[in-house]
Predict the 3D structure of the following.
Amino acid sequence: MSPARARAAAAGALRRSGGSAAPPQGRNRKRAAPRGGAPAAAPAPPPARHLFSDPAEVEILRGNLLAWYDRCKRDLPWRTLAVTEPDADRRGYAVWVSEIMLQQTQVATVIDYYNRWMQKWPTLQALAQASLEEVNELWAGLGYYSRGKRLQEAARKVPEVVSELAGQMPRMAEDLQKLLPGVGRYTAGAIASISYGQATGVVDGNVIRVLCRLRCIGADSSSPAVIDRLWDMANVLVDRSRPGDFNQALMELGATVCVPKAPLCGECPVKQHCQAWRRVEKELTFASQNLFGKPLPVPDVEDCGVGDCPLCPPATEPWDSSLGVTNFPRKAAKKPPRVMRTATCVLERRGCHGAPEYLIVQRPSSGLLAGLWEFPSLPLAQDLQEEKEREELADHLQAWMGRPVAGKGLQFIGEVIHIFSHIHQTYVVYSLHLDGDVTLDPALSPSRWVTEDEFHASAVSTAMKKVLKAHKKQCRKESSPVKSSKRKRRAGSACPGTQLSLRTFLRAPTAP
């Protein structure tokens, strides 16, 4: 069969397997001319090497991957619920929560959060009755806080959706994506396949990596064209009898074996289907033959034969033998994170029981860290002098306290760096101890005084926990005894509310 016929047959097989229809083969073919315009050239479809066009290969791949999954899958709480929960709606909710939490977050981090969440809100109805404050408190530390907010908003909308669907949750991926706020294409596919057995594929970061290596897809894996092609592949591959298990197996493979760096190719159950692995093996064979002086065959450069192939690596970024299978996937260079500086003040007073209390204020209901609580903070311009930083922060604090604050009275603690996904944030931390009560302006954002335990129980970000940790570390440093006999601790430098060590307490007073 000629190459052209083979590629046409492959495209037909893809369409028969459930993939999207491919345009006619041939670089010079034209689409039907739009009325009143010049004919547009049809893009060449990917060659068979980039597709799963052999039904027999697909069946073997499915069997090998599912057998491996049955042996090696991790024991995760949401998987247990997906299998043991008899109520279909509860099963869908359990999978939904896990998929939202797992976005941009590692499995090990999610497990405890997921167990606490399901214990507190075991059903959508229970979540719908919760407040956003409660959701944020439980979500604190998990990051990307808008995920929890959208999940709760969707829970409140579900009764309306259920009433339109004869009293049950949407079952199909298309309906889940269309009717539930915050549910995208991936989450809808995961819920529909795992909870309700719909034979639909899923594409997340792990699946992207696996598919790109299996079929040597070297174009930018974040581009819409490549993502669409990967969805076609996922829908072709998904096992019709066990779609949920197959999708989880594909993701499990990417999470545990086909990892971004140093993949465990020797343990991969589908390596015989992997074009990237085959290329590495051929290169090793060529190198071995060359070492023993054997004549080398004409090397197979693994080129798909189409110069403008939309799925091959660009000519400017050819295959790098030193990278092996990690040549794939290719991603566009990320934009550098935005650099921000924020002045933050730990306002402290002695509470009614003698323990220190801290003032926290609530952030706006939209934007970064929406609705969370923090120490009074103020964004700073870059390259601002320390004296000017103090003045601006003092003016900001005056609005909260209703009385003048001297910039020189602010004690500098240090700088705390926290990296968000798109922001490199530096908190310039100060502290100020207040004597007596302070009347807070009710017209400003919500605020309250909290103990340390109440602070950690509140919906505060990980960054603010770092700020408090830095403050307490400085307090301990100032309250610890000075080892050198030539240096004396300044009077009053101990942080109010801190307890002296037993060694210091029992030490005999020294003569002045």
